[in-house]
């Protein structure tokens, strides 16, 4: 193993050990996160029960429950609780010093720590996830082919990378603002709507007049933003709503966002450290 | 004079030690010769590399600080109109530290000590001036430099809070690319010296402050740095832990010929560890020399300790100096240095004495006096804060 990879491996192992310290709290927190999906199932049951239509905006009752489950899975990859706030706190409190005085890359360090956190989370959550998907298996109306599963897995990885890079970028704004909690709140609000966490993204645009320029523009904007990769895109891939060339282009679009956000992170870090060096420490 | 009188005098050394002020480099004044500065900087860097220590030349650092007036109205007004002041934390300091030297960096709070350490650690850029540590310009933050120095700041820990220190040490082994055998040997040595072998497998959060500081020192020294920057390493520690850290630092520094720059408010640390002290106040160096010189230069008083014979408490002792301790038959007087000989003569003539001693005042008192006397210049600092 090269020394760079042995550092990453060591960071990963150490962060896993750290994550396992508070076992009780962690297991409880992980399991409680499944509660919202139960309420979502009840909600959609009530909505479709009260409606005369079998399908609302192209989604039947079963599709909607399946969508909610898949969004929950995608969010398990793309959500990064505490990352942005943690970076801003390290900048504000000065503990960022250790990254600047040791021969270590801060962003790489944080990335592998986050990978460790996610791995521990999946280790604990995989049982409840499997149980939930098995219990609600009838809601998935079609069986995906291996290529779709592969595209879905790729979209989850893209979601993780975009989620990490977006949150770390917000955290790095702490070099300028010190306190970023309002920014995090704005980001979470936007993410809730624009990632498709609350409702499928095509519902948002379908509210606009059919074949209008507004609907076309809104769809274009939503497709160009990185938010969809954090919830909507993986779910639509698995539900078979994105296929063929469209799927390839959207995957490439996600990769483009990863590269762009990576470059922005590097730029923000370099500029931020220069600013930190000039004004404080 | 009684027959049994013992006179124990450590009379003042009247030699005058002239410490020349370190002026800024002359080449800075050469106008119009393009590249002169660069050439001199390169030359200086080459020299420092040969010296393998620390060289600081006319280093300055100023900050802009938001000045907020008290009150709600002022808070609202500050939303669109802010007043900034420029605080000059370090004002053109220059010094050299040779390889293997351990130097104390003394000064009151806000004197510029920590700012200087941050500059030397590469955490902040100077406003002007140059510095090289081990031939590296610190604020370039080259990886090669980061591998050769360590910074320990008293209460900012680099250990993983919830894990045993052992885990952090392993991470350091990878970060600094240490050979596993060398790492194990060095760790065993440091753990043994600092007497923490039973604690390395205990979560850091469960350790006492003193134990944590010892672990911090191990983490800082595992990669065998050539330069160690220590900011208040014994702050908040009990006497036993302080002494243990002091003894360790003394032993380790002598053994490894480590270059150490140490800030501390505990003069016992300083006296135990350093022969040379740089005194900084208001961002300027007030003294650079031996600790004895600090006392010689700034200790304007000496202490005369008296042991009276007989049963009658002495009368009129105040006429000879400031009596700051009186527990008959013992008394202590603070006397201006220049007046020690005549005061002694007067005391011996007037009182029946069994023992007399003349001592330097404790270093912390001298330093405190020095800082207090220079604090009068605080107005100068305020004057330099230019409202914007």
Topology:
The complex is a heterodimer of chains A (281) and B (388).
Chain A: H1 3-19, H2 23-32, H3 35-50, E1 55-56, E2 59-60, H4 61-78, H5 83-93, H6 97-101, H7 106-135, H8 146-172, H9 174-177, H10 181-194, H11 201-206, H12 213-224, H13 232-238, H14 244-279
Antiparallel strand pairs in A: 1-2
Helix pairs in contact in A: 1-7, 2-7, 3-4, 4-7, 4-8, 4-13, 5-8, 8-13, 8-14
Chain B: E1 6-9, H1 36-51, E2 54-67, H2 72-77, E3 83-97, E4 102-106, H3 113-121, E5 128-133, H4 143-146, E6 149-153, H5 165-175, H6 180-193, H7 209-221, E7 227-231, H8 239-256, E8 259-263, H9 267-273, E9 276-281, E10 284-290, H10 291-298, E11 301-308, E12 322-327, E13 330-336, H11 340-350, E14 353-360, H12 363-375, H13 378-384
Parallel strand pairs in B: 1-14, 4-8, 4-9, 6-7, 7-8
Antiparallel strand pairs in B: 2-3, 2-5, 9-10, 11-13, 11-14, 12-13
Helix pairs in contact in B: 10-12
Strand order of the largest sheet of chain B: 6-7-8-4-9-10
Strand order of the largest sheet of chain A: 1-2
Q: How would a crystallographer describe the biggest sheet of chain A?
A: 2 strands, antiparallel
Structural class of chain A: mainly alpha
How many whole angstroms does the radius of gyration of chain A measure?
20 Å
Oligomeric state of the chains present here: heterodimer
What's the main sheet of chain B like?
A: 6 strands, mixed
Given as residue ranges, the uncertain stretches of chain B (5+ residues, pLDDT < 50) are 1-34, 377-388
Estimate percent helicity of chain A. over 70%
Unreliable stretches of chain A: none
Strands of chain A, count:
2
Mean pLDDT of chain B: 80
Q: What is the global morphology of chain B?
A: globular
Kindly, what is the distance between the CA atoms of the first and last residues of chain A, rounded to a whole number of angstroms? 35 Å
Can you tell me the number of structural domains of chain A? 1
Measured by DSSP, the beta-strand proportion of chain A falls in: under 5%
Determine the fraction of residues in helical runs of chain B and give it as a percent range: 25-40%
Helix-strand string of chain A = HHHEEHHHHHHHHHHH
Radius of gyration of chain B: 25 Å
Summed up, the helix count of chain A is: 14
């Amino acid at each position: 193993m090269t020394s760079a990879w042995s550092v990453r491996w060591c960071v990963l192992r150490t962060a896993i050990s750290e994550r396992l310290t508070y076992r009780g709290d962690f297991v409880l927190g992980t399991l409680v996160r499944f509660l919202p999906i139960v309420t979502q199932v009840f909600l959609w049951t009530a909505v479709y029960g009260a409606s005369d239509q079998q399908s609302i905006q192209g989604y039947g009752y079963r599709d909607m429950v399946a969508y909610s489950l898949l969004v929950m899975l995608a969010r398990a990859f793309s959500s990064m609780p505490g990352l942005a706030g943690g970076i801003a706190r390290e900048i504000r409190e000065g503990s960022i010093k250790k990254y600047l005085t040791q021969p270590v890359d801060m962003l790489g360090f944080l990335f592998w720590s986050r990978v460790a956190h996610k791995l521990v989370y999946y280790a604990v959550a995989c049982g409840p996830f499997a149980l939930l998907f098995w219990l609600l298996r009838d809601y998935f109306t079609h069986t995906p082919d291996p290529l779709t599963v592969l595209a879905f897995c790729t979209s989850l990885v893209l979601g993780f990378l975009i989620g990490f890079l977006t949150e770390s970028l917000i955290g790095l704004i702490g070099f300028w603002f010190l306190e970023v909690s309002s920014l995090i709140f704005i980001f979470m609000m936007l993410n809730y709507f624009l990632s498709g966490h609350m409702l499928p993204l095509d519902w948002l645009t379908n509210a606009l007049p059919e074949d209008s320029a507004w609907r076309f523009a809104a769809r274009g904007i939503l497709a160009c933003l990185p938010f969809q990769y954090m919830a909507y895109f993986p779910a639509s891939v698995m539900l078979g709503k994105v296929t063929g060339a469209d799927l390839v282009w959207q995957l490439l679009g996600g990769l483009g966002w990863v590269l762009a956000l990576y470059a922005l992170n590097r730029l923000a870090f370099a500029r931020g450290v220069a600013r930190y060096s000039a004004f404080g420490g | 004079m009684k027959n049994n009188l013992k006179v124990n005098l450590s009379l003042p050394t009247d030699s005058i030690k002239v410490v020349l002020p370190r002026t800024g480099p002359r080449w800075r004044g050469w106008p119009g010769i393009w590249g002169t500065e660069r050439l001199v900087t390169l030359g200086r860097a080459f020299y420092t590399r040969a010296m393998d220590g620390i060289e600081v030349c006319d280093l300055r650092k100023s900050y802009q600080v938001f000045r907020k007036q008290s009150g709600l109205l002022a808070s609202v007004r500050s939303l669109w109109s802010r007043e900034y002041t420029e605080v000059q934390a370090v004002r053109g300091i220059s010094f050299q530290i040779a390889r293997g030297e351990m130097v104390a960096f003394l000064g009151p709070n806000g004197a510029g000590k920590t700012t200087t350490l941050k500059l030397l650690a590469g955490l902040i850029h100077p406003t002007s001036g140059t510095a090289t540590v081990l031939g590296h310009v610190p604020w370039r933050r080259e990886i090669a430099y980061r591998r050769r120095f360590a910074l320990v700041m008293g209460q900012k820990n680099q250990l993983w809070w919830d894990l045993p220190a052992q885990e952090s040490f392993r991470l350091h082994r990878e970060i600094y690319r240490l050979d596993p055998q060398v790492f194990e040997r060095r760790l065993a040595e440091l753990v043994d010296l600092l007497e923490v072998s039973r604690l390395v497998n205990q979560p850091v959060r469960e350790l006492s402050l003193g134990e944590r500081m010892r672990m911090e020192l191990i983490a800082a020294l595992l990669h065998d740095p050539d330069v160690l920057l220590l900011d208040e390493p014994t702050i908040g520690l009990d006497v036993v832990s302080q002494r243990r850290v002091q003894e360790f630092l003394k032993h380790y520094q002598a053994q490894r010929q480590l270059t150490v720059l140490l800030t501390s408010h505990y003069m016992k640390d300083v006296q135990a560890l350093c022969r040379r002290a740089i005194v900084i106040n208001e961002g300027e160096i007030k003294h650079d020399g031996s600790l004895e010189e600090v006392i010689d230069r700034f200790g304007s008083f000496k202490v005369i300790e008296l042991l009276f014979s007989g049963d009658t408490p002495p009368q009129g002792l105040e006429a000879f100096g400031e009596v700051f301790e009186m527990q008959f038959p013992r008394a202590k007087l603070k006397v201006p240095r220049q007046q020690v000989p005549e005061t002694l003569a007067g005391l011996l003539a007037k009182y029946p004495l069994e023992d007399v001693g003349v001592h330097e005042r404790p270093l912390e008192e001298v330093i405190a006096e020095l800082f207090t006397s220079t604090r009068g210049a605080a107005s100068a600092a305020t004057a330099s804060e230019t409202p914007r």
